[in-house]
Write a structure and sequence with these properties.
mainly alpha; 82% helix
Length: 56
Amino acid sequence: MALSISATVLPAIIVVVLVEGGYVHVGSALVCTLFGFTVAATGLAPAINSGLAALA
């Protein structure tokens, strides 16, 4: 459970830093976030999760 919390919080922190630094606009960050939720609803999600688990 700790791995899935840190795997969620770390990208969120990176996105906030990039938005605050002016490297990424808020609209682009929202589009990427919505794309992530869309991919998570597909059949590709288990492969991504197992790849991240293997990487960790």
